[in-house]
Automatic annotation (TrEMBL):
Residue ranges of every copy of the Cytochrome c domain listed in the record: 126-210, 219-300
Keyword Nucleus: no
Keywords linked to the UniProt accession: Cell inner membrane, Cell membrane, Electron transport, Heme, Hydrogen ion transport, Ion transport, Iron, Membrane, Metal-binding, Oxidoreductase, Repeat, Respiratory chain, Transmembrane, Transmembrane helix, Transport
Assembly and interaction partners: Component of the cbb3-type cytochrome c oxidase.
Cofactors required: heme c
Family: Belongs to the CcoP / FixP family.
Protein name, entry field: Cbb3-type cytochrome c oxidase subunit
Length: 309
């Protein structure tokens, strides 16, 4: 808080406290010349009279106690401009202290799973249950509460298709350090190679990789094959099997991260895609990321885990 704002707050608080105290003193007693309590001339319905009497003494005492409490509060806690208070209390310090206590409780609860592989942790029903809670709080926003993902770039975690590898260490790496998948926009390049219909031709050929029968007597797809082999094989391979080391999807299965419609495939080729899985190690720490990884493993390998999900 700047000095100017601090002075403003101090003046405002002092004015309010002094003003309330002065008002109480002014109204506490009757003065010579004041009309009698019954001389207000305010009468309704013939017998309902408004009186003008001082507040009861016990009520006045409560008001004074409130003022004294307020002054004491401002002495003990910060609230009087830049004055930090005798206690030096801050909300940040209280938060840090409480967080330290909570972290100690969390560390104790997760200690049995420290350094364990996620497939081994997944055999413990208690760990899987804790992992499910962590997943719901941190992962369900993108992957859904059931882990089935969505066709706008969020992978299904319940199947056996893994863009970056499905080994326990691969899954843990994805959770802890995140992933960044980049599909380069090829629209301009392909148009220069094969004209206005080039993107449509490559899209047609990509469809045949998961269903080779579509390639028969398919002129558009056959045109796209040559361009695919000239541009796309670097990442997806000649057979379209992809490359998990760089997150290039397998185009021969029936899993489509951004949808399997012709429009969706064409959009991917034309304008590219940019998918980001944020790193969760800084947020959750090593052990909790392992436990949530165990839950992910359990929903994709139900026969190998505790099945407690």
């Amino acid at each position: 808080m700047t000095t100017g704002w601090s002075i403003y707050v101090i003046v405002l608080v002092t004015f309010n406290i002094v003003g309330v105290a002065a008002l109480l003193m002014w109204t506490a007693k009757r003065r010579p010349g004041d009309p009698k309590p019954t001389d207000t001339s305010h009468i309704w319905d013939g017998d309902v009279t408004e009186y003008n009497k001082p507040l009861p003494r016990w009520w006045m005492i409560l008001f004074w106690m409130t003022i004294i409490f307020g002054v004491g509060y401002l002495v003990w806690y910060p609230g009087f401009g830049n004055f930090k208070g005798v206690s030096k209390w801050t909300s940040a310090a209280e938060h840090d202290q409480q967080k330290k206590l909570d972290d100690a409780k969390i560390d104790k609860a997760f200690a049995p799973y420290k350094g364990m592989s996620i497939d081994q942790i997944a055999k413990d029903p208690t760990a899987v249950k804790m992992g499910r809670a962590i997943f719901a709080n941190n992962c369900a926003t993108c992957h859904g509460s059931s882990g089935k993902g969505a066709t706008n770039g969020y992978p299904n975690l319940t199947d056996n298709i893994w863009k970056w590898g499905g080994k326990p260490e691969d899954i843990l790496t994805s959770i802890q350090h995140g992933r960044e998948g980049l599909m380069t926009p090829w629209g301009t390049v392909l148009t220069g190679m094969g004209g206005p219909s080039a993107v449509d031709a490559v899209a047609a050929y990509v469809r045949t990789l998961s269903n080779p029968e579509l390639l028969k007597n398919n002129y558009m797809a056959s045109q796209g094959k040559a361009m695919y082999e000239g541009v796309c094989v670097a990442c997806h391979g000649k057979e379209g099997k992809g490359n998990q080391a760089i997150g290039a999807p397998d185009l021969t299965d029936h899993d489509w991260l951004y949808g399997d419609s012709t429009a969706a495939i064409r959009e991917t080729i034309q304008n590219g895609r940019h998918g980001i899985m944020p790193p969760h190690l800084p947020l959750l720490g090593d052990t909790r990321t392992r436990v949530v990884g165990a839950y992910v493993w359990s929903i994709s390998h139900p026969t190998e885990s505790s099945g407690a999900h």
